[in-house]
Batch of 3 targets.
Target 1
Amino acid sequence: MTDEQDQLLPIANVGRIMKQTLPPSAKISKEAKETMQECASEFISFVTGEASDKCHKENRKTVNGDDICWALSSLGFDNYAEAITRYLHKYRELEREKLANQHKDEGCNGSSGKKSQNPNALEKGNSSLTNKT
């Protein structure tokens, strides 16, 4: 596999996502999947690069969800930024609820041996990417 292919999203995943929006009888050519694979991968790299630059300027090594939302907005993709921001808030809320339920269950049933996570860590985004630059 070449370095360029390492940077692309898996084509099976791209095809699966494309099929979800088409009628069940629709067929997707290999060329269409490859084109979408390249476009989606380039878009993700473009947005992530912008977020990474922001983190670098702020002397941070980790790109988080808020940075991605900021990058989308600063690149003019405001509709995407708004939708992803709403998703990110819902995700964090569900994660906090899961943690609260875990702690409640551990309190009733004793310790489960699992390492507990700080629920406040989700406030600024616990799902993040480490910046390797």
Target 2
Amino acid sequence: MGSASLIPYRIWLPSDCKHFSISRSCHWIGVTSPGGYNKLQVKGKSIRAKTTMAHGHRAEQVEGEGSSGAFLSKFSYTPPSWATDLHPIPSHFYSLGHLPTPIHRWNLPGLPSNTEVWIKRDDLSGMQLSGNKVRKLEFLMADAKAQGADCVITIGGIQSNHCRATAVAARYLNLDCYLILRTTRAQVDEDPGLTGNLLVERMVGANIELVSKEEYGRIGSVALGKFLEERLLKEGKKPYVIPVGGSNSLGTCGGSIAGLSLGSHLSNLKAKVHAFAVCDDPDYFYDYTQGLLDGLNAGFNTRDMITIINAKGLGYAMSTTEELKCVIEIAETTGIILDPVYSGKAVYQMCKDIMENPSKWEGRRILFIHSGGLFGMFDKVQQMQPLIGKWQRFKVDESMFQADGTGKMS
């Protein structure tokens, strides 16, 4: 079969799947699980089966990414069997991300003997919607639509990945978007420009509302969101407020630290989640995560499942030269581009600990979650410019020119 004939599929398999195979003709997908053998028939560009899907919903038909009906479609949601006691459970989600994202071996430089690092590439969950935030937004946007909202509000830093993803998701679903973005006192009255995430946000028509860091600190994100919500209600709109980072109990169903620890605790994995705090301090995040989990009646203590390490450095979204050098080295040696706010700081702190305490890491198998954020690198261009070389003027020899002064084509 030629490459032009290949059709990409997004396949949801039963949660207890042990093995699956695709027939030579590509007309059938066989799934083996403790419940027996199930044959999923491929017809046209869809995969039909009546089974419980691992992604969390039951359906007569699940369409592949090769079909026009899957991406941006709304699906009913049923949690995995080990999560059925949680409450509240979302009823629906929108398919916004290109999931599942790949996992592969990551050959970081300087690893101790017998240490394996693997990387989960949530930076590949989409283009404009890249990053782990799309997992939360699949649930949050479904809730917004269910409540009859015609616009969404959220809040974050001036280069917030979450705000950019929210703006794109909202536009996909025909919702207006209002972003309260935190910036410096010197820039709060100026046009914020088109760097990084701002370019995407403004291109998809998001309404930008700037506040200073001092105002944000005095008033708080909840009160700011409420104030904007009341203003829009008076204008006849129907806003839906999404908290900072999409972090609430509903968002936890697709979340990062809270969601990962919840899944690990309730499933058979039981692996501890190591998190890197890039703002505030570990105690703040232990308490904040505990609140999210308590909101789902998770029934466990965050400190039993999570270790939070301080990786703030100079402060939120502020990069040291050493952190940026680490990001550059990782890109040059592995091809993986991190972001300067989250994954870059996390990897810098992790690599630093590996070098200082190699025995602690020997023989370990680590899965690192790349949460995306490439657009944020464009905000660091001036700081990174002196750190990146490998350029020179190409030396042109006179013999390369033809008699009339034009270049030779062969």
Target 3
Amino acid sequence: MKQLPVPVALEPSSILPFITWQNLAESMKQKYEQPLHYLTHILLKQWDQSRASTNEIKPIGNIIHPSKAEATVWVVEEFNRQFACHHFLAKLWLSDPNYHGFVDTVIP
């Protein structure tokens, strides 16, 4: 994943539709045609779970500006692409039986 550059916004005015952080990740994957890192998916899933009791019905776009939310995800993504250790990922995958739901095909 280090070989994939984090994309710059193609259209700064285009706002991606999403209600949850995980919806935002899926929209970003479709828009930029790039997979997101496994650790990014895990973090976004945790963020969604942390707000489940209080703001579940309220879309994230009503809480944080959509452009800022997207930029936040790209910062996290850039960090994970640069610094994730494959040994750490292997340990996580061993403890997560559903890891394949977040793993995309390998890009050469």
